[in-house]
Design a protein that fits this description.
The chain is an alpha/beta fold. The protein is 41% helix and 10% strand. It contains seven helices and five strands; from the N terminus they run H-H-E-H-E-H-E-E-H-E-H-H. A five-stranded parallel β-sheet has the order 3-2-1-4-5, with helices on one face. Helix 5 links the parallel strand 4 and strand 5. It starts with 11 loop residues before the first helix and ends in an 18-residue tail after the last helix. The mean pLDDT is 92.
Length: 229
């Protein structure tokens, strides 16, 4: 049997890019009210009441620690897994003083947990960035006790969206494939321009339509209509 190399199933360039992103956008300025509102959206289906007392779980791909800040006070032990050193440094600062948080600078294949040992896990917007998403999900599931909840957020194919919406996404994906290959500094500048000239106007247009009573469920970026820049 071929022995697996440590650090498998990870893309170093992606890790470097997200490290730079969370170092620049550490989300420390995000207000508690807005953080809690976004948290409720993501965790609305999470079965908090079913967790055992003193539950121990993992935030896989913790990034800036934005979700861990809200989860940690609700559980016994929270393990923060993050392969990017810069992001891990941001998470350590954000979670400073939370004695029940443990930090693990590693990828999904290197998590130091025994199989069937965790009471819960979550990974939001992370696993579609690893080379083998299905294998990453299996790795995390192996660490969970039978029946333990695992909350996952992944990109999907917009199967429930109109044709025109999917066409817009395909066009934006072509741009993304170019932008993601740019050097970090240039990528930041391009993304800032897109945020200011495309994302922000679309989100605020959705807010105006919402106030006018126009349905915005299928409007691009409508979710961000009441979110800060």
């Amino acid at each position: 049997m071929k022995k697996e190399m440590p650090g498998a199933n990870r893309d170093e360039r992606v890790i470097e890019g997200f490290g730079a992103e969370w170092d620049r956008f550490d989300q420390q300025a995000l207000g508690d009210e807005e953080r809690q509102a976004i948290f409720r959206d993501y965790f609305a289906i999470f079965p908090w009441a079913d967790l055992p007392s003193g539950a121990a779980g993992a935030d896989v791909g913790c990034g800036s620690g934005r979700w861990a800040r809200v989860v940690a006070p609700r559980v016994g032990v929270l393990h923060c897994v993050e392969p990017a050193p810069e992001a891990m440094a941001v998470a350590r600062r954000a979670l400073d003083g939370m004695a029940n948080v443990r930090f693990h600078p590693c990828g999904v294949n290197d998590m130091p947990f025994a199989d069937a040992s965790l009471d819960f896990a979550y990974s939001l917007g992370v696993l579609h960035h690893v080379p083998d998403t299905a294998d990453a999900i299996r790795r995390i599931a192996e660490k969970l006790k039978p029946g333990a909840p695992f909350l996952v957020y992944l990109y999907y194919a917009f199967d429930n969206r109109p044709v025109w919406f999917r066409a817009i996404w395909r066009a934006s994906d072509l741009l993304r494939r170019v932008v993601c290959r740019l050097p970090n500094r240039l990528r930041f500048l391009v993304c800032e321009a897109i945020a200011a000239l495309v994302y922000w106007p679309l989100a605020r247009t959705a807010a105006l339509l919402d106030r006018a009573g126009v349905p915005t469920a299928s409007f691009p970026l409508a979710y961000y209509r009441d979110k800060s820049y």
